[in-house]
Specification:
- The chain has nine helices and three strands; from the N terminus they run H-H-H-E-E-E-H-H-H-H-H-H.
- With 213 residues, it is mainly alpha-helical.
- Strands 1-2-3 form a three-stranded antiparallel beta sheet, with no helix packed on it.
- Strand 1 and strand 2 form a beta hairpin.
- The radius of gyration is 20 Å and the shape is globular.
- The two termini are 39 Å apart.
Length: 213
Amino acid sequence: MYNQREVGALLAAAAELRPPGSLRPLTYRTLLGLLYSTGIRIGEALALNLENFLCAEERLYIVEGKFRKARWVPLSTTTCQALQQYLDRRLRIKPRSPDSPLLLNQRSRRLHHVTVNLTFRQLLRRCAIPHNEHAGPRIHDLRHTFAVHRLLAWYRDGQDVNARLPWLATYLGHVDIHSTQVYLRATPELTEEVARRFHDYYLQQIQTNGGQS
């Protein structure tokens, strides 16, 4: 998982990729930003076509996710703006038909998973983010980051996290919350929030019961 500082560094490094002035830097910045802000799978992102982004409706259509499960993914206003800025540049390059790839490589073709992973490793090294060259981290970890950061936000807002887990599972395209829980491994931030909530609850019980258990 990556913290917000590392995500910011990755986005900044992507914007400086070569060749300068080409679509490539903007493509990778957009891709990484999309993965972090939506939690969609890398395969789903690479499979997006121009027609799958509906800016006016602020959503993406995932035609075929894992287990052949299509779904709509709501987007924040800032994510829509970033995608539209990319699209403004992207549409200067052919192909431009609705079924053309949303994200293009330098040969005006769909991005390839292997090339994306290699570029991502280069960005990790450039940002001095610790990683194992043979075992990871993977670009897929941005999906884990999205899930954990979403859970943290709910904890900090005082939301009923258990009640919201099905929402997160649906958004991520999981068949049930058990798949979602894989992404929610304990982190220092999560542990701190859970401990704080328990502490607040414990104090409330003491005040309510007059110190009797």
